Amino acid sequence: MFTPSQAAVITGLSLKSVQKAIDNRLVPAKTARLGKIHRRLLSEGALVCLHLEAEGLSLFPAATRKRLFAEILRHPERRSVRPAPIVTVDLEPSRQAVAKAVRQLKKSELLVIEDPEIMSGTPVFKGTRVPVHQIALELEQGSPIEEVLRDYPTVSREQAEAAAIYARANPRTGRPPVQPWRGSQPVKVMRQVVSGLRAGARKRAS
């Protein structure tokens, strides 16, 4: 079973679109308690339906899609469906794409550990104390992977490449931690030093 965030990464839909599909009952979802939070969970068959949605089936009326998705979930061996008399949709490409994306996601999760004794349970790469979401953020902001690997020598290329997938599928919850220096005033000594430097520069110029 997969969370909506994981489903979005696997299918190519936005998280908002996945949630909307569940709300509109296009695909079924179970509710389960994961830790302290109740989450919606989707089957791999539902992910195939959402992948079809991302690939263009969303152009058909909601009633048609709901009927097709119900058929797909009832008959997982079915190779194709017909949303219209002159249209046939091959299901195998979506099944293969979902299976490949699931393997990539599981591989990324095997590289990560959450241990209360390490960084207070923050997801880090195995064998390191480097937060996965930090690597994903730096890559998202445009830092070259070679630069990131130099800055974090304990992180392998495989781990860095998996960071984005893991972070999107497992977004951080709650507010970001408050920086201890936020709202503090600059140290007065620094201001005196800068002022002294400026005075010295004016004296030398004269």
Proportion of residues in β-strands = 5-15%
Tell me the Rg in angstroms. Answer: 25 Å
Number of helices: 9
For the largest sheet, list the strands in their spatial order: 1-2
How far apart lie the N and C ends?
76 Å
CATH architecture of the largest domain: Orthogonal Bundle
| Low-confidence regions | 175-206
Residue share in helix: 40-55%
Tell me how many strands there are.
6
Q: What does the model show?
A:
Strand 1 (30-34) and strand 2 form a beta hairpin. This protein has 2 domains: 1-110, Multidrug-efflux Transporter Regulator, Chain: A, Domain 2; 112-173, Arc Repressor Mutant, subunit A (Orthogonal Bundle). It has a two-stranded antiparallel sheet with strand order 1-2. It has a two-stranded antiparallel sheet with strand order 3-4. The protein has helices at 4-11, 15-23, 44-54, 62-74, 92-110, 132-140, 145-151, 157-169, 188-205, and strands at residues 30-34, 37-41, 80-84, 87-90, 112-113, 124-125. The chain is mainly α. It is elongated and about 60 Å long.
Short description:
This protein has nine helices and six strands, in the order ααββααββαββαααα.
Provide key terms for this protein:
206 residues; single chain; two-stranded antiparallel ribbon; disordered C terminus; mainly alpha; 52% helix; 2 domains; Arc Repressor Mutant, subunit A; elongated
Note the topology:
Elements: H1 4-11, H2 15-23, E1 30-34, E2 37-41, H3 44-54, H4 62-74, E3 80-84, E4 87-90, H5 92-110, E5 112-113, E6 124-125, H6 132-140, H7 145-151, H8 157-169, H9 188-205
Antiparallel strand pairs: 1-2, 3-4, 5-6
